[in-house]
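#struct-queue
[09:14] JT: dropping the first one here, sequence first, then the structure tokens:
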Amino acid sequence: MADCDEPQCDLDTDERLLPKWWSWTWPCHWFSWGVFGLGIALLGFGIFTLLTDGTSEGLILGSIALFMMGWCCPNPFVQMMEGFNLSADPRRWSSPPLPPMKKSDWHMDRKYWDEKFGDWLPNPLAKFEQDKPEIKLLADGDGWVVNCDGKDSERFSTPKEADTYIEQKIKSGERMNAQELLFGDHPRHNRYRALYNATPPQFTSRFLFHILSVLFLVGGYMAIPRESREMMAYFPSFLLVVAAIGVIYSHFSYRKNMEAWDTITSIIKYVDGGHGELFGQIRPMSNSPLKILHVDGCTAPSWTFDDLIAWSWNYTCRETWTERYYDQESKTWKTRTRTETRYIRGGSYASDFMVHDGTGGMFVKTSTFERIDLGDTLWERNRRGDKTCGPYDSARHGGTLKHTWSLSALKLSEPVYIMARMKSLPHDDIPRGTVGHNATRVHHTLQAVGEDAPRRDTRISKGTEFAVLSAKNSSTSRLGPLILLLLGSLVMFL
């Protein structure tokens, strides 16, 4: 794989990350370079054929070659995004979130001292609070020790004094800037500030190659003798339909992808009601154990999974067999190999969870979402774990069988992107207490639900926001070749 030149960003300057009008890009991968080289060779042969024979075949070959070369030239905006995201897998963290991804660091059960009951009671709103400062309370004989951010420890003789100290630390932490709390992969992090202000160039190398490809195609068709063109009358009609479908599909698919670009990702600490985006870490709503998954009922350890918020597993079977058939053309009996892939059984599950971005957490009502992307296959097996698993499928055609079990899931601590409507919780479901000391915070009173709105298709997707973003492109570069093909096919048709 060859290295790509990636635009660099200096957050302290206002320089453009990409040229306004023109940007040339070269292939980035060895496969793309191979196809690009093949395109150059085919283009050269086409031009040579055109100059020597003067036939239209040279133009048509050149059109195919130019299309291949344009396909190999990446969108400059894609290269820029890769530079920002450090080429990380967008389904996973590119920089580990802080605090570490252990349940013990998520203050799910941070306690407060209740004078009425004379005991430490769980704070129902602790899990909604920001991650810093990290506070740990330890009993030390007749006293109490409070550790803050792992740096300093204070000892107190009474629980009331320890509780007052904890309140002061939480109150001081509320003054922290959101940038100090946000996970590094959050779209509102300063590392991505320039990315979201960037605009794509109007013209690219891909645009140039595809424009020339269309011109060569139209020219090649027009160079064909009239008698031959009459025999190919269907060709302009076919191109006209392809171009029209391409323009319509490009327009609507791009508009849908731009929903993520145009919607500002909310910082949970300051989120408001209405439709918007959330990004953060998957966390449980309580310390209660999550449902354990035994894939296909198999109790073998390698088939058992915990800490899953949502999952989908499938058991498929592929049968391969040979059969004899009578060939009518040769009037002989022949043998052929047949395959058939069958879905045997499967299962799915989804539970509600909390999304936390470092500044705060919010309840996600998973059951209200119709679109949940669990990402790529997390686990796969080709043999049954033990006898507790569901029964094997049997051969239907007397052939050999290949069994496959696969699992996709959302796990605790993984990154998740959510397009949702932020809606008030029912009054009786709102947890009582205070989030820090700021009464204006409302995120613990809201829930993210899957209610669509115009240009807002709600969804839950595994990974960072970059896993769902489609690279920007100018209208000229995106639609120019298709519109030219549409006009060219009309000329050929008429």
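[09:21] JT: and here's the second one, same format:
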Amino acid sequence: MWDAIVIGAGISGCSVARELSKYDLKVLVLEKGHDICAATTKGNSATVHAGYDPEPGSNKAIYNVRGSRMYPGLCAELDVPYNKNGMIIFATNEEQMKEVYHLKEMGDRNGVETKVCDRAALLEIEPDMGEGVIGGLWVPDSGMVCPYSLCIALAENAAWNGVVFETSTKVDSVERAEGGCWTVRTASDTYTTRYVFNCAGTYADRFNNMVSKDTFKIIPREGQHLILDRELAQYTKVTICQTPELLPGGGHTKGMGLMPSVDGTIILGCNADQVDDPDFCDSTQEGIDKIVDYFEEKWKYLPISKHVPKFPRDAVITVYGGSRAHPDRDDFILGEPEDAPGFINLAGIESPGVTAAPAIAVDMVKILTDREGITPKAGYKPGRQVKPCFRTMTKEERREAIAADPDYAKIVCRCEQVTEAEIRDAIRRPVGARSISGVKMRTRAGMGRCQGGFCSTRVLQILCEELGKPPLEITQSGGHSNVLVSKACELEEGERA
């Protein structure tokens, strides 16, 4: 018997898992993907929204603001990079300035600090703002995070405090069991639990609709992004986006943006187009073209255009995407349905879900702890143990790290300066990497200009050594994504020496 089962190990599920781990509870997380953060969360724009634009009084507004204010302390506690760099929502005509004033009003009602700026005031914040920008909204509390780094850190801390994670485990059904408990079934196992936390992303409606007459529908929307080479990051520090508008060729955005990542690259995006596949986590040429067309048109307004006059197609090093779980109720769906006590929804967690998830988790877990009268456990460990990042070390710190662990002297990924010590640590940690993409998410090995062209073979070797698996069993991202499919040749016995 489990006290709680969490379905899904994205940002919502991992936030709930960590919050549950603060109590003496037996907790299991079931994730159908090969790894945590394998679907919607890893396709996020990485923006920590301040909460100026959600409808005042909505769940989105309440938890966006609360979550945003948790981020500095949360990221410091979990050793996750976070940068409160601020955001400018710019306008190029008077109609857009009307929207700026509307956003200011929304921010005021949500209790978020904002400032309407004319061009002169914007230039004090961002001196290179492009010609044609007449004003905008300054949001100083907007920030940036790496969503998969945070998700992984939450999971590692939860596991360190006793939470059990099972990946590649798809939940097939949830139903009421005897005694007011719940039965959760997968293809290979049946579990009984007192509480279920539904953090299933684009599948959250299916599980809710199995147990409650209060049904809803999740509408998947694709969101795609481009990544620009880190050499361009020196030209912008502030997140820049235009007031919301329709995209060329259809679809919409809450404000297509240029976002300086915490890892030293630039993120461009994103689109928001409805898709049929709830598992969509890739990119489409149509989506990429929309983003490229948009930024080719709007590039002149961005500060970076002062240094790079035209949109640099050759600086795009990769693209990524993922589905957004848009609910038909147009707000986060939280808490227990009236007819399903003990079944707790964290559903429809789309933008600004990454920002809001830690705050949502606090209140959703409180449903369980208040009802059961559970107090926090004395031995809870708030942080995690992780190898320091070689790329960000000083020369002296590097010398000390190499002296303590010689594997720090072995650079595996030259683009991102990732060492063998960090890769082995990423595999050995709680809820560790089991694939090349798992290593990539935890260390950035393979995220540079060459996108793993030089380092992936060595990463594969290290995975073999650490996991005790032959090369043919190592995957890119779980499932049937085997990197190698057959041996090119087999040495004769006499040739092996």
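[09:30] RK: nice, looked through the second one.
[09:31] RK: Residues 83-143+219-325 form a domain with the D-Amino Acid Oxidase; Chain A, domain 2 fold (CATH 3.30.9.10).
[09:31] JT: good to know. Residues 157 and 405 are 24 Å apart (CA to CA).
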